[in-house]
Amino acid sequence: MNIILHWFTTDLRLHDMPSLRSAKDANALLPVYVIDPQSEGDTMHGFQRIGPIRKTFTLQTVYALKEHLQARGSDLLIIEGPSEIVIPELVDIYGVDSIHVELPFASEEVKRISKVKSNIAIPIHHFESRTLFREHELPFTLDQLPDMFTEFRKLIEKSCGYAIQSCDDSPLPPLPIALKKHSLQNKMQEIENSWITDPRAAFKAIGGELEGLKRLQYYLADTHAISTYKETRNGLIGDRYSSKFSPWLALGALSAKRIIESVNTYEQLFTANESTYWMKFELLWREFFQWTLKKHGDAFFRAEGIRGKKQLVNHDSQKIENWRLGNTPDRFVNANMKELLHTGFMSNRGRQNVASYFVHNLQQDWRIGAAWFESQLIDYDVASNWGNWMYVAGVGNDPRQDRVFNTKKQAEMYDPDGAFQDLWLYDHMAKNER
Ligand SMILES: Cc1cc2nc3c(=O)[nH]c(=O)nc-3n(C[C@H](O)[C@H](O)[C@H](O)COP(=O)(O)OP(=O)(O)OC[C@H]3O[C@@H](n4cnc5c(N)ncnc54)[C@H](O)[C@@H]3O)c2cc1C
Q1: What is the Cα–Cα distance from 75 to 44, expressed in whole angstroms?
Q2: CB-based burial of residue 234 (10 Å sphere; 0-12 exposed, 13-18 middle, 19+ buried)?
Q3: How far is the CA of 80 from the centre of ligand 1 (A)?
Q4: Separation in Å, CA 382 to CA 61, 129, 292, 294
Q5: How high is the pLDDT of residue 183?
Q6: Which among 87, 91, 153, 338 is least buried, having the fewest CB atoms inside 10 angstroms?
Q7: Residue 354 Cα, ligand 1 centroid: separation in angstroms?
Q8: Does residue 433 contact residue 422 with C-beta atoms inside 8 Å?
Q9: Which domains can be identified in the chain, with CATH numbers?
Q10: CA separation for the pair 394, 403 (Å, rounded)
């Protein structure tokens, strides 16, 4: 018997999954998802590490995967407990021979997996399912990864370009294992149904692979919104100004490779223009931050970032709370922060402005801002979030050290009639904010 335990982490899908396909010779495959209390709880800043909206979106995604696997005659064990305890227990109960898991990029995940490793005697195989390229496909070694995005992009475009190796979507191996009764309960959590999408939300975010694939279809062939993306991408209202792929990408419910493949097909069938190129360009930003995190590790979470540059901070709990809740003296910042609070999403333009305001106007520690985003964003991605925050704080990959957003000017430029600010600030709850 060859039994493989597939430990799902941020690869919550069945398409483009080399780890599942490489298990095709196994006699049995045991799919597992662990809700690890160590990655939840409160931050040292007095708010939850995973807020309710992000939690709901994650659970929707996990349960959608369970249903998808059940439809293929398999199942997903959803277990709550410290990974280093529950995974070894499952290995014993099922007589597992090896474990397949996504290659982790952040140190916390690396440490979690090594703790599991030290409690078992079977091999763990890692799979690179998060990025467009595997490490050996990059045109440089990781220690030579450029610290500037433009240099990275040029090297990638010159060598591999966007004609990436296509996703392997050959049929899945049978998933025949019968789940045994055991003390680790198959966690059935009530998904918070009371959370109803705010009617002002830019788009309806429902977790799960099929919803992610639907969104891809919607943005490309259904609406052709992609063909004007370069002109609309700085928008603030509505579901078409940008792709909104990020929530599904973050949990791996949609693969980055699948998006590039679909954009390439769209270009062949319909049109190839600056906008279709720009979507691939933006996905390269995502790729850049993933590899930058892998290269720099813990420096991503230090005040001085990867530049080793000290930041001036002036800790003020009241200012931090006002920013978090959208009660600062700046209407544009407030509107964006309320959007985040009520929906778990914010546009890229909004993120740049509120982060710059937090760091440069309020002079607070950028890591607290990043932690708040981590708590709230349904598209929270460790590399993209901490990498972008470092960038804005001037301790990351920005070649310019003096970039500060003038939020008043930005509001005039991107919200000239104030429609976005009115949407989030002028409601029955908050008339007095006008
Ligand atoms: C302070 C700050 C924090 C951020 N935190 C996150 C985060 O936790 N998770 C996250 O996915 N993105 C993050 N971003 C990047 C960006 O804002 C979002 O990816 C984007 O707004 C998501 O919306 P979209 O899918 O409609 O993007 P689109 O404009 O349609 O772009 C398509 C895809 O390209 C990628 N992308 C675009 N811009 C960036 C960027 N600057 N950095 C990395 N990838 C990018 C994303 O995967 C995105 O889904 C952050 C940006 C800032 C300034």
Answers
A1: 37
A2: middle
A3: 30
A4: 18, 15, 11, 11
A5: 52
A6: 153
A7: 14
A8: no
A9: 3-129 (3.40.50.620), 209-298 (1.25.40.80), 317-433 (1.10.579.10)
A10: 8
Give every CB contact of residue 343 below 8 A, 6+ residues apart in sequence.
53, 197, 198, 200, 201, 202, 205, 378
Eight-state DSSP code of residue 184: S
| Most ligand 1 atoms within 8 A of CB, residue of 374, 384, 392, 414 to mutate | 384
Ligand 1 atom 21 nearest Cα: 348
Partnered with residue 99 across adjacent β-strands are 5, 124
Nearest CA to ligand 1 atom 49: 246
Q: What is the whole-number distance in angstroms between the Cα of residue 385 and the centre of ligand 1?
A: 8
377 contacts 279 by C-beta, under 8 angstroms: no
Residue owning the nearest CA to atom 19 of ligand 1: 246
Report the run of H or E that residue 18 belongs to, with start and end: helix 18-21
Q: Measured in angstroms, how far is the CA atom of residue 348 from the centroid of ligand 1?
A: 6
Are 147 and 296 in contact, with CB atoms under 8 Å apart?
A: no
Distance, CA of 11 to CA of 62 (rounded, Å): 10
Model's pTM, two decimal places? 0.95
Q: Model confidence over 82-112: pLDDT tens digits?
A: 999 999 999 999 999 999 999 999 999 999 9
Q: Calculate helix-pair angle for 366-376, 331-343, nearest 10 degrees.
A: 40
Picking from 216, 277, 220, 275, the residue whose alpha carbon sits closest to that of residue 248 is 216
Separation between Cα atoms, residue 356 and residue 108, nearest integer Å? 27
| Residue ranges with strand state E in 87-198 | 98-102, 124-127
> What pLDDT score was predicted for residue 433?
45
Residue with tokens 């109960």: 93
Pocket of ligand 1 (CB under 6 A): 233, 242-246, 249-250, 282-283, 285-286, 289, 347-348, 351-352, 355, 373, 377, 379-381, 384-385, 388-389, 392
Mean of the per-residue pLDDT values of the chain: 91
Q: Closest by alpha carbon to 40, among 78, 80, 8?
A: 80
Helices (H), 234-273: 246-250, 256-269
Q: Measured between alpha carbons, how far is 63 from 67 in angstroms, rounded to an integer?
A: 6
Q: Which two tokens stand for residue 129?
A: 């399912």
Q: Which atom of ligand 1 is nearest to the CA of 354?
A: 1
Question: What does the alpha-carbon distance between residue 93 and residue 373 come to, in Å, rounded to a whole number?
Answer: 39
Q: Mean per-residue pLDDT for 226-251?
A: 98
